[in-house]
Predict the 3D structure of the following.
Amino acid sequence: MATRAKVFEYAVEVDRGGRMTIPGGAQIAPAEGWTPDHLLLAALVRCSIESLTFHARRAGHEVAASGNGHGTVTRREDGRFAFVEIGVRIHAQLQPRAGDTSELVAKAERDCFVGASLTVEPEYEWHVS
């Protein structure tokens, strides 16, 4: 018998005022100046931290992390404007400390759904201690 892949489904509603709501849950309104492009970068940073946290906890670590993202949008060869470069920098502390964090970092990059969904591959810079 074949195993079925896990399926994760998400929904969000955006009203005429730009407020975003998850069905049955909380609502947020982006502050002035926040664009969908900023929200995408924030989602990528947040997803990267969540992915690292998931794998670190499975390995017996607690995580305190922060990060930032930056991106460049310009016209691609196909004539469409899109992100052509995206960078993510994550600073994380593990308790207890881990000697070699390369496996955790590789899993975090691989399993961030947002990063895996982009057509441009993010460049990650990890500072994990």
Q: What stands out?
A: Strands lie at 13-14, 20-21, 27-28, 62-75, 81-95, 123-128. Helices lie at 36-58, 102-111, 113-117.
